[in-house]
């Protein structure tokens, strides 16, 4: 998803965290996320649900903790983990070299792509046709980074649904977003389609404070178990409609 631009964690928070050890000392497993990214995290009936939530429920059950899910701006989730305000960030987070210097990452559990959404009657057929076009992205995502670096300065939106709405209203020529969320958005806008050619291939993982190696090992063990027994595919199939 999401190579978000991480804001610096205040020094005072880092000091508090350093003095408090690797994490919080209660029976909760606090997960932070941005709940506008279906099928990984979204609101349904007043609750936050999705692939990432079910994965962390499995971790909580295995480790005897109560899962608590907190919704916040994606730009804040890594900082919350760094400061010890949350145990994990699970929000369709793309593994990048820069992020590896800030947090520990679990084993990847999803392979994802950045794709291009256009109107059905668009002349855009691939990445080469995006030059000079009005392109919308979710602010700070890997789609934002790719478009900025390789094509042009995009128009940035707080979330994908707003970017897609602007495209449907004729205010943009294309939108670049993660593949599975794009399917959800396009299903709500009959005038839009996803191009066959993806722009990138990425991997999502769970972010944990670098000092909390015990929790990271627990998460990896659950991911391995779910992959071996088919549970990971069942979680994905629950939310991803073929």
UniProtKB/TrEMBL annotation:
Source organism superkingdom: Bacteria
Protein's UniProt name: Basic amino acid ABC transporter substrate-binding protein
Domain annotation Solute-binding protein family 3/N-terminal: ranges: 28-241
UniProt signal peptide: 1-20
InterPro entries on file: Iontro_rcpt_C (IPR001320), Solute-binding_3/MltF_N (IPR001638)
Record organism: Victivallis lenta
UniProt-listed PROSITE patterns: PROKAR_LIPOPROTEIN
Pfam families: SBP_bac_3
């Amino acid at each position: 998803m999401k190579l978000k631009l991480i804001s610096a964690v205040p020094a005072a928070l880092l000091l508090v965290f350093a003095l408090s050890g690797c994490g919080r000392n209660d029976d909760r497993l606090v997960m932070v996320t941005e709940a506008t990214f279906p099928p990984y995290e979204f609101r349904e009936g007043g609750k936050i649900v999705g692939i990432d939530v079910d994965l962390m429920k499995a971790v909580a059950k295995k480790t005897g903790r109560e899962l608590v899910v907190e919704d916040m701006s994606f730009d804040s989730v890594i900082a919350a983990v760094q400061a010890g305000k949350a145990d994990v960030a699970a929000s369709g987070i793309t593994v990048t070299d820069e992020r590896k210097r800030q947090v520990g990452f679990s084993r990847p559990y999803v392979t994802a792509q950045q794709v291009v959404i256009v109107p059905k009657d668009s002349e855009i057929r691939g990445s080469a046709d995006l030059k000079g076009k009005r392109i919308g992205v979710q602010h700070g995502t890997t789609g934002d980074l790719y478009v900025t670096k390789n094509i042009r300065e995009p128009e940035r939106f707080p979330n994908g649904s707003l970017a897609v709405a602007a495209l449907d209203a004729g205010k943009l020529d294309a939108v670049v977003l993660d593949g599975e969320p794009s399917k959800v958005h396009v299903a709500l806008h009959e005038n839009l389609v996803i191009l066959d050619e993806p722009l990138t291939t990425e991997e999502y993982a769970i972010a944990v404070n670098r000092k909390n190696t015990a929790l990271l090992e627990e998460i990896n063990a659950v991911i391995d178990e779910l992959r071996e027994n088919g549970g990971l595919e069942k979680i994905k199939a629950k939310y991803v409609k073929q």
